[in-house]
Design brief:
The chain is mostly beta strands. Helices cover about 5% and strands about 40% of the residues. Strands 1-9-6-11-4 form a 5-stranded antiparallel beta sheet, with no helix packed on it. Strands 8-7-10-5-12 form a 5-stranded antiparallel beta sheet. Strand 2 and strand 3 form a beta hairpin. Bound molecules: thymidine-5'-diphosphate. The site of thymidine-5'-diphosphate has 6 residues, from strand 4 and strand 5.
């Protein structure tokens, strides 16, 4: 399964009068093995999360509840993805600057990651990120 660019992935959904069900499987719906899962919650209005890129980590971001925007930047252009359904995931490959903002009240962002947490995998300096992209180093 090859996937190199950011994209919205529609996950399976089983609509049921008892309540709906969705799921995600590694290598089936996403192109990586899940090594870590974390979630963002109780985000106060107006706050912004993220604001970095990863050298290696890939991820799938799902709005399990509520809604928020994910702004992706490949060093050339920015694209805003509005996530507001729990059966859509945004695939973010490595080497993309990403920010999350406009969280609705009680929103819950689930992130499936391809690597364990590693501080050294982060690029926090936007100018450095753009330079690395420009030089084809990331
Ligand atoms: P950080 O990735 O900086 O948050 P944001 O998504 O806003 O960029 O993470 C915030 C803090 O949480 C940081 O001190 C590291 C810690 N953290 C972990 O220990 N493990 C994790 O998997 C993540 C995502 C963060």
């Amino acid at each position: 399964m090859m996937m190199k660019s950011p994209q919205i992935i529609q996950l399976p959904k089983f609509l049921d009068v008892r309540g709906n069900l969705s799921f995600v499987e590694q290598f089936n719906h996403i192109p990586f093995e899940i090594k870590r899962t974390y979630w963002l919650y109780d985000v106060p209005g107006g706050e912004c999360r993220g604001g970095h890129a990863y050298w290696e980590n890939q991820e799938l971001i799902i709005a399990l509840s509520g809604s928020f925007d994910v702004v992706l930047d490949d060093g050339l252009e920015k694209t805003i993805y509005h996530l507001n359904r729990s059966y859509y995931g945004l695939y973010v490959p490595k080497g993309i600057w990403r920010e999350m903002e406009n969280f609705s009240t009680n929103s819950l962002a689930l992130v499936l990651s391809s690597t364990p947490y590693d501080e050294k995998d982060y690029i926090y300096d936007y100018d450095e990120f753009v330079r690395l992209k420009h030089d084809d180093k990331i």
